[in-house]
Every structure is written in C-alpha cells, then in structure tokens.
Amino acid sequence: MQPTNRSSRILLPVKRWFVYFSLIFALALEYIPTGRTPGVPDWVALVLAFWCIREPLRIGMGAGFVFGLLVDIGLGAALGQHALAYVVLAYLANGLARRLMWFPPLEQALHVLPMLLVSQVLMVVVRMIAGAEFPGWLYFLSSFSGLLLWVPLTYLLLLPQYQPVDRDDNRPI
Amino acid sequence: MSLVGHKPPPIFRRGPAPLMRLLMFVCVCLALLVSDLRFRYLEMFRHALSVVTYPLQMAAATPADFVRNASVYFATLVEVQLDNAELRRQQLGSGERLLRFELLEQENAQLRGLLEMSRRVHARSIAADILYNAPDPFARKVILDRGAQQGIEPGLAVVDASGVIGQVTRVYPVQSEVTLLTDRNQAIPVQVERNGLRGVLFGAGHGRLELRFVIGTADIQPGDRLVTSGLDGVFVPGLPVAEVRTVDREADAFAAIVCVPLAGVERSTQVLVLGRVEAPLPMPQPEPVPEPKAKRR
Question: Which range marks the domain in which residue B135 is found?
Fold first, then answer.
C-alpha cells in the first residue's frame, strides 16, 4: 500500500488495533465538553471517513453504526442520529475509496467535505422533523474545520505505517 | 450465484451488496430514532451502553475541568472583594425578609389549620452548579454537577435566584441533564399571578416562550407575571416563570401569547434543584358503591 496510488513509497500494512485505537481516541475527543462553540470538528466522522477510504475492506458501515451509537449516547443526542449520519458517510467513503486513492491529500479533502456536509444535513433534517429548532448556519462550520484538518490527519494516522527510506541499489522497487 | 453451479471462492465473498447493507442500516437507525424520540423506549438501553462510554467521558471531561478550575484560580482579588461586598448587602436584605417570611409562614399555617385547608407543599432543595451546555446543538440543555448519587431524580424542577429555568430530564451517576424552558419540547403548567388563569407554557426557541391554549377573550395582558400552578404534581406551586410580552387575539381561536422567562435561563451558573417532599395527592376515587342493605340491618 502507498500513501496515495501515485506515490512510489511502500507502506507497512495497517495494524488492526491501531485503526480501532484511533477511532476510540477520536471518540474521547468528541466527548470533550465544548458546549455550543461552533466549528469544533466531528472527530469520529473524520477518522471514520479516513479509514473507510484507506481500508474499505475492514472499516465500513458496521463500524459507522457502532461508533455512531456511542457518540449518540455520550452526547445525549437522539439515539440513532449520529449512527444514521455515519452509516451514510461510511457508504459514500467506501464507494469513493478506489477513486480517492489517486488524489493527493489536499484534493482528497475537497472530496471529503461534501460527505461530511451530507452527514450533517441528514442530522439536521432528522432532528427538525422530530421538532427541534434549527441550530443555525454556524453548525455546518465543523465540516469546514474537518476540511482543514484532513491533511495533518492523513499524515498523523499513516505515521505508524511509514518505514525508513532505505537507499539500496539492489532493491527492485 | 455463479453460472457453473458452485459458490464463489472465499476471497470474493463479501456479503450483501453495499447498497443493500446501507438500506438495512438506515432502516435500523430510523427505527431507533422513532422509538427514542417518539416513544422513549430506549432509556434502559441508553443506560446500559452508557456504562461503556462513562470512563471515556470522565477522561474527556478532565481538560474542561482543568480550564474551569484555572479560570477560577486566576480570578482577581478585586473581583472577589466586590463580589463579597455585594453578597453581604444582599444577605442583609434577604435576612430581614426571611425573618418576616417565617412569621408569615407560621401565621399562614395557623390560618390554614383554622380553615381546614390542605397544607402548602414543602420542597427540598439541592444546590448545583451548571457545568456546561449539553453538546447536542438541537436542544436547549445544560449539564449539572449533581447526579443520582446526590439524590437528583428525573422530573425535578430547576430554579435560579429569580425563577424556574427548567426540568431535570436525564440523570447520570454524578451529573444530570436539565432541559431548559426555552427548548421546543419542554412544557410547564402555569397560572397568571394576577387572576389565577391557567395555561401551559411551551418553549418557542430563540429564548422565548409561548402560552398556548388560552382562548382569545381571556383576561391576560402584556406585563402579567406567570407562576407555576403545581397542577402537574412535579413543580412546587408559586415559582415565578415568565412575563407576558405580547398578546395577539386575532390570530386564531386561541390567543398567540409570547412570553420571556424571568430567570436567567441561558445565563445562570448556580441553580437549585427543587423536589416535592410528598407525593402528589391521589386522583379522586369514584364514589364507593353503597353497601347492600342486608349488611346494614
């Protein structure tokens, strides 16, 4: 596996425990009580989208559903609200995974933004049907902060898979 | 199914198609949402799963606690002195009022005893701090630093110095969640202080409240104070709630009445959780069936 399909650098295979550890760590970040501060990124959605793109065979809608339920319970939101959003996000990310691997991280981020927005719009629609009030346009700011975080996040989450560049004339690749 | 009559090798076996799986998960999510929002069936499930998330939540709350404690620690001496002077002044004023209040309460109890009326409701109270706004951006909720271990129960009223701010809706072991009056799904039975007219006050969003189901010809005018009626058996009667801002009698069969809360619903930081000491009176029983005459003889 390479960082992107155009790169000539070979990565180590991903460790399964690291995938779940990063998701649980994102869950802990999500639980930090920030009140109504606009623009706090949805950490679980970001990390989930990342692994859905990198490892579409391992992380998908099932993981989205489980972590969505955990977010719902931790935040005191309606049960199933984040689960629904993350399942749709995982479906979109899994579907676009093959295509996205051909782009550098910055252009991947532009693909991820609409996915995050779709998941947020879904949550707004579901809660407004249930009678809640509109949270204001600043609510969607968190997708844009996710856009800014995509490149550093890609670097950080791929860090355990990088191996030292070994200058060796005899190696075939 | 392959054409040659045997199953594909395991490397190609991937379960149902993604779109199928998506539809399945979406259906499950919608079922969960409906049963949680509409029927409130899932509180037990939520409590069971919150055991898993609780350690993570505690760990995540640590940085927030640290920031809050640091801001308290660095409060300047001048601020504390000013606060202290202000509190002393208030203490003097309220001490005098309290003396009179005790006298009046005794007098009231005696008069009520003379008139053989039922006693006024007594309340027990728990002081609590508001920790932070609940993270759910679709509802107006706050989190208190007292929970089931300190005797908080769902349904208790939450007041600040000037009136009701909301009601406890969910209780965790050491925290509890309060739905504010301004939440769209929160209702509170009230009466007009001036003439005892009853109604139900609903949250209307944007920090305002709406008194519904009051007929257009009712005697209500801007400036009227609304207090809890206590008919629900949850709130202590007579707590100030809101003030009528505008009354539109033309809108419908019912008047459209917009109110603003008296308490600092979205501003207060220290609150009291009030509960009734005794259970509300039982519903009136139907008249006992007259006993058969044979017994009377």
Answer: 122-278
Q: How many domains does chain B have?
A: 1
Give the model's pLDDT for residue A148. 94
Nearest to B57 among A61, A74, A135 (CB): A74
Taking CA atoms, what residue in B is nearest to A25? Answer: B56
- C-beta separation of A69 from A79 below 8 A: yes
B55 within a domain of the structure (yes/no):
no
CA-based torsion, B256, B262, B263, B264: positive or negative: positive
pLDDT in tens, A18-69: 999 999 999 999 998 887 788 899 999 999 999 999 999 899 999 999 999 9
Q: In angstroms, how far is the first alpha carbon of chain A from the final one?
A: 13
**DSSP3 helix / strand / coil % (chain B, rounded to 5):** 35, 25, 40
Q: Is A18 in the B-facing interface, judged by CB distances under 8 Å?
A: no
Q: Per-residue pLDDT tens for B14-49?
A: 778 889 999 999 999 999 999 988 887 888 888 888
pLDDT at B290: 64
Average pLDDT for B293-297:
51
Check whether A142 has a pLDDT greater than 90.
yes
CATH number of the domain encompassing residue B238: 2.40.10.340
Chain A residue with CA closest to B11: the answer is: A57
For A6, residues 6+ apart whose C-beta sits below 8 A from its C-beta are A102, A104
CA distance B268 to A25: 33
**DSSP for residue B70:** H
Among candidates B46, B59, B61 on the partner chain, residue whose Cβ is nearest the Cβ of A73: B46
Q: Is B133 part of any domain?
A: yes
Inter-chain CB pairs, A–B, below 8 Å:
127
Phi, psi of B164 (to 5 degrees): -75, 135
> Three-class SS of residue B297?
coil
Alpha carbons B105 and B125: distance in angstroms, whole number: 18
| Tokens, residue A173 | 């690749």
CB B238 within 8 Å of CB B230 = yes
